[in-house]
Amino acid sequence: MALQVHQLTVGPLEENCYFLVNEDRREAIVVDPGDEGAVILSHIKNLGVRVSAIWNTHAHFDHIGANAVVAAQTGAPILIHAIEAPWLESEMLCGAALFGAPFVPSKATGTWADGDQFEALGTQWIVRHAPGHSPGLCALISNDEKLVVGGDLLFKGSVGRMDLPGGSAAAMTQSLRSLFNDWSKDDFRVLPGHGPVTTIGQERKSNWLVQEALGPGLEG
Ligand SMILES: [Zn+2]
Ligand SMILES: [Zn+2]
Known about the structure:
alpha/beta
């Protein structure tokens, strides 16, 4: 059974909020509700689903801005890597202060660690800690759905910036190597935090930042 993926682009940084939907269960997970809480809530209402969780790929302000309102209205737990759980409550850590963006604090209900596996929406998921853009960024990967929920790890034709506090070019290289060599296959769809959806194979073939990270001698 395939999950449905709906996408809303929200806020001034055009962040992608995703709704992963299991139609049979009338159940959804909201990924990175970054801004425009009212729009997100009305989309949930239109879908006619129960929201069973809010996933934050990482805690930059543009990915978490509507956490509080969506959690309050749906009762859904907020999940994120333990390193960035405190960022949800800090205007400084999440970058809102740095960018002069409005900030509404929220609180993690539970936290992830690398390699965690769990069932959600009738699918098995694995948490892959993928630092580089931010220290606690996680990709949520479903082998059954061939899906990478990657936040700002990888974009169509680009990768996440590494110059923000806690960013690391060396960590990004390692995360990209793991993603392309170990965690996924070329036919996996990638849901990025900004810009259009892509695939692992497409990025392996045409994304020079990925090719640089994977190094010479690998096909591309
Ligand atoms: Zn980010
Ligand atoms: Zn972002």
